[in-house]
Design goal:
With 386 residues, the chain is an alpha/beta fold. The chain starts with 5 loop residues before the first strand and ends with a helix. The relative contact order is 0.20. Helix content is 42%, strand content 11%. The radius of gyration is 19 Å and the shape is globular.
Length: 386
């Protein structure tokens, strides 16, 4: 854990150090949750794909690449319109370096990837501009808890990433209705993060539903139903349940901060009537027996050091104290111009890239200079080979 490229974001350095020491006691297992939100189809919201028609394929292509080294649902893995590749290349390089097994969880993806899956939900999320973007939130929570309960007992540290195009917008919306002042603070996949458009859409959607900041603090399931996406509640359920047995690294920036806020609000609940009746006892047990010392968040330095965001400010607002870290990645010396574009604010994070890079740093005591050649090799293999 002596890598110089581990950034500790949380102010409680003792707790941060303790969590990393817990993590390295067990080998990592990567879990990637995928989902679709029609929010991504709003023009200007997502850069996860060269055109709107491709965006709905992005998550499926990402996890297919993790299994096969290339996409199967598309000719190639979607990339930002300006050229920088999917962050899945970072995930792939770190996972291969760690020799880390993986599991894919479908929380409600529009395109079903051609890989083995654990299915938590089969209904993609609708746009936050619709009355109820996530209609099956209770079942998704129960499924997430059951999956997390089983994965937590495998004797591995769980590294939980995601692939949800448009997910930073739903994350911003969820944090706002759960009482977090997140406007102007989130990071995203484009330079500058396009906050004005996202905030305009969210403000209008909240107004149409009679909501303001903090309206749903006491009803986090309704918050996801009205302003979120399917991944958020599945990921929260998995993390809650698995934390009873093993360390869990929530892999991502803005989206995992939203999941951490959701976890915190679930822990504050006194009335459990909203929990799914069939699985109520299991859900209550997961919430009441959570081990917060087993939860952490990890992202990339492109997110944590984003001058157009305030990730540290968001981390300070978390209702449950969960330490946060960043892997200090830098592509400025890369021999590929499209990788250098990451340094201009493109892409930044996704598919658990920061968390798996951090895992390489803590388990193998690597740093950016060690990992970059592996990332370049994956990039060449995927994007430059015939």
């Amino acid at each position: 854990m002596s890598s110089p490229d581990i950034i500790t974001i949380t102010e409680d350095e003792k707790a941060a150090g303790n969590f990393l020491r817990l993590c390295v006691r067990q080998p990592p297992l990567f879990i990637c949750s995928i989902a679709t939100t029609e929010t991504a189809a709003i023009p200007g919201i997502s850069a996860a794909g060269a055109n709107p028609e491709v965006i709905c394929y992005t998550a499926a292509a990402d996890v297919e690449a993790l299994y096969y080294g290339k996409a199967r649902c598309l000719d190639k893995i979607p990339e930002n319109p300006q050229g920088p590749p999917s962050p899945v290349i970072i995930t792939m390089a770190a996972r291969e370096t760690l020799n880390c097994p993986m599991i894919i969880v479908d929380a409600g993806n529009y395109i079903k990837p051609q890989v083995p899956l654990l299915v938590a939900g089969q209904t993609p999320g609708k746009s936050i501009t619709t009355p109820l973007p996530v209609e099956n939130v209770q079942e998704l929570l129960a499924q997430g808890i059951m999956i997390g309960d089983n994965l937590g007992q495998l004797g591995r540290t769980l590294v939980m990433g995601e692939s949800v195009p448009g997910g930073t917008t739903t994350a911003l919306a969820l944090m706002e209705v759960l009482g977090i002042g997140a406007f102007g603070k989130i990071s995203g996949s484009m330079p500058g993060n396009n906050p004005s458009l996202k905030e305009k859409i969210i403000t209008r959607a909240m107004a149409e539903k009679g909501l303001v900041r903090g309206s749903l603090v006491s009803d986090p399931l309704a918050a996801v139903s009205m302003m979120g996406d399917p991944m958020q509640i599945v990921q929260a359920g998995m993390a809650l349940a698995a934390s009873r047995y093993t360390p869990v690294i929530l892999g991502g920036g803005t989206q995992m901060l939203a999941v951490a806020v959701l976890i915190g609000r679930l822990l504050e609940q006194q009335n459990f009537d909203r929990l799914p009746a069939m699985h109520r006892e299991r859900c209550i047990a997961a919430i009441k027996n959570v081990r917060l010392e087993n939860l952490g968040i990890a992202t990339t330095s492109w997110v944590s050091e984003d001058n157009y965001a305030d990730i540290r400010g968001l981390a300070k607002q978390l209702p449950a104290k969960i330490p946060m870290y960043a892997a200090r990645l830098n592509f400025i010396t890369s021999r590929h111009k499209n990788l250098q574009l990451y340094e201009q604010g493109f892409v930044k994070e996704g598919v658990g890239a920061g968390a798996l890079a951090l895992s390489a740093f803590i388990y193998l005591e690597m740093d950016n200079s060690d990992l970059l050649p592996a990332i370049e090799a994956v990039y060449e293999r995927i994007y430059l080979s015939d």
